[in-house]
Amino acid sequence: MDSFRIISFFTLPQNIGASCVRMDEKILGKQRAMRKAKQVLYGMAKRIGGFEWARRKTKRCLRILCYHGFAVANETDFRPKLFISRDTFRRRLDLLNEYRFPVISLNEALTGLYEDTLPENAVVLTIDDGFWSVLAQAVPILKHHGFPATVYVTTYYSQKETPIFRLAVQYLFWGTTVRKADLAEMIGKDWRKVNLEDPVEKNRAQWAIIEYGEENCTEPKRQDLCRDLARVLQMDYPFLEKTRILSLLNFTEIASLERDGLDFQLHTHRHRFPDSNESLAKQEIQDNRAALQGVIRKPLKHFCYPSGVWAFHQRHWLKDLGIQSATTCDVGLNDKSIHPMGLRRFLDGENISQIEFEAEITGFADLIRRFSGKAGPL
Ligand SMILES: [Zn+2]
To answer: Which residues make up the environment of ion ligand 1, defined by Cβ < 5 Å?
Structure first.
């Protein structure tokens, strides 16, 4: 049996109730207002020289940026935190150029950080998961700038060469305009009349399909489930397969990109790193390493926690496996006091405005977090 539980890829909470939906709308409204105010504040700070001051103040800190997928079609509407458009990505790298921030490799940056030889305002680009769009969209822009990047690749779907099941199900539910669906043939008679106009019911149905597929099906069966679901929801599943917008790089592509200078590192095989099961967590890295070792020539010694979920005791497990650094999704800059298994990053995506990005890379946003006591432990 090829069943598994794969963690996140930035998934929504599972059993969301009606009150949660209403509360989410309230919270979202408040968050939008706060974000708007933050952008106004950043604009003012930039005009009076705050960004320039922050850049000087944080010049010895390492900035690590994190990307995931690069949009080919409408992925930024589907998941703006997970995907970024080519134009936005290009504007980000142009800005790093304008600031003359040196973009260096992860290896060089870590040596520089801990040996005190880091160039001022150094930046590292990291890309999580290894979406196919790295090759199609990101690489030409990276090459144009001559910037290095590290891709943390999760290998299960590189091996299978199919769309990521959980994301595909979510994409089909997100994109459908069908109002009522009969899912009984897929997940049982309780799901004969699903009202897709009700967000709570729609969410429950989506998770019922995901759970059924992940717990009971082989990968080919999961793909059959996606095709059946697409038919019911009147969505175009062959479009997802053909465009590969929710697929990962295969091993031939990984090998070719490595020869081209891209750095590939570890991100577990099935995108999971349980903190309560040492042997399973270690097995995930061993499987990930075994899958990559056939195609990657450089040492695999850097790691990225899937979904940024980590615990202090896991640092020992990583050390046992010869891992030298690990990146989190904790926001912030890195100085030499930061533990190499707890490196901070800034997660960039289509949801981030250019002024927010600028506030992050100049260090202004991090200084604000430190002054307000919101920076995490080192
Ligand atoms: Zn990931």
So the answer is: 128-129, 306
